[in-house]
Amino acid sequence: MAKVILVEDDERLATLTGQFLESNNFAVTIVNDGAKAVNTIIDQQPDVVILDIMLPNLDGFSICREIRQAYSGPVLFLTAKDSDFDHVRGLEIGADDYVIKPVEPYVLLARVNALLRRGGKQPEENTDNIKLGQLEVDKAARKAYLSGHEVELTSYEFDLLWELANNAGQTLSREHIYNQVVGREYDGLDRSVDVRISRLRKKLGDNPDQPFRLVTVWGKGYLCSKSAWD
Length: 230
Description:
By secondary structure, the protein is α/β, with parallel strands linked by helices. The protein is built from eight helices and twelve strands. Helix 2 packs parallel to helix 3 and helix 6 crosses helix 8.
């Protein structure tokens, strides 16, 4: 389980972000005070640091500069300032990446995972085999079965089904799906995921007019039902 230290003085935001990361199999330590962050990071040596810039007592730039003497792991800046000066300054003093607040949770997750992959460490998967009623998705074999019969899927379709099933009961935004499955940012126009969702529905016995297994949540994204596979 990858360890994350989140340095954020907005306690509500920190709590929500921490809970989201924990639900994705990270161990999260939250620090709300900049002055406490340096010792905490150096002592715990986390796999990644998520660091707000505007903090009480010691700002994020100063924290990054100080920890670089004793911490070599990735640092991801959270900044509310859309300023090239801030971004360049952060990267020059040792940050590895930055995102501008407010950030969509799955975008943050994608950035953290990218930093971990770059460093040779990835968060553990919850499982390599998912069972939802009569649906079984085997990640190691890259096969899916419905009522005991193999469902013929393309590689793209399998990755899309895995992502939806692995987050069953949660609405996944198009931004998240493009980041995690397609491997690039969603441009707001590309409809390739919609087409593949439609194909998956046909292969999985879903109702194309009123889908109940792979559900469209209008304005938000797609949801894989937990209970519609019996």
